[in-house]
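User: Please predict the structure of the protein below. I'd like the answer in structure-token form so I can feed it into my own downstream comparison script.

Assistant: Understood. Taking the following sequence of 300 residues as input:
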Amino acid sequence: MQTHRRRVAGAALMVLALAALGLAGPAQAKLTGSYTKFAQCPYTNAEVRKCIYSVTESGEVVLGSKKVPIEKPVILQGGYGPIIETRGEEEEFAKFYAATNGETLPKAPQNVPGGLAGIVPEASSPPLVKALIKFFFENSLTGLSSTVELAKPASEIRVSENDLAGEIGTALEMPVKVHLENPFLGKNCYIGSSSSPITWKLTTGTTSPPAPNKPITGASGVAEFLEGGRILVLKGTKLVDNSWSAPTASGCGGILAFLVNPIINSQLGSTTAGHNTAILTGTVNIASAVAVKKNNEENP
């Protein structure tokens, strides 16, 4: 009971802190160093109230039978504005605004352990399929990288400060697709697309996934204030979702996609809900757009 009360009290304080950022007054001079990470925030847009720079430093993405550890930092940057959407009685979501350089989610290819090696064709497979498997996957260039990209415009991203701080509901909703890259797969091998995206509903709370996945729990992190309270840093934030589904692969193998796509899908196994997981652990930086703009004006 005491632990629950402490968590509720801590969440309430963090919500107040997030709200207070929107009321920040003019920043003091010589604060450029702490604000540089928000360089791509569209803070000149009057609709933008907060700037965000989130760095995923570790974690993993599990897609069917493939587990991809996050070894290279993954950045989400941009801004968000007032509440534009309400779900139920408590969930309130703000619209996201793209990074000014167009790189809201810069590409960060992650190595897929095991690559594309180890695929064994079924005995009943046609000779052409057996030949393709041998050509594509039984060679020294079977390394595979996986890159999470936005599947829709950044304006489709939704942010909930209350859920982020309170460790409930959906803190970050994001439509994504996974780009699989290998010398033999071509440039358009994807799982997910703009018309059929993977939708992550990431939470700092506890998930309720379909079987065989089991509930996992995230964390809002430890709050730290910089620049007189105008920048909030959440260290050790853990965003999780293991309830999402993913479509089958498409565009793999160029003109031979009709043969290669099924091979990729057979290696991935089931990617229906209950077989996939996203765990993103890192640091979230949030600042008042007013403060960032003022700092820029004072440090041209």
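That's the full token string. Residues 56-72+85-284 form one domain.
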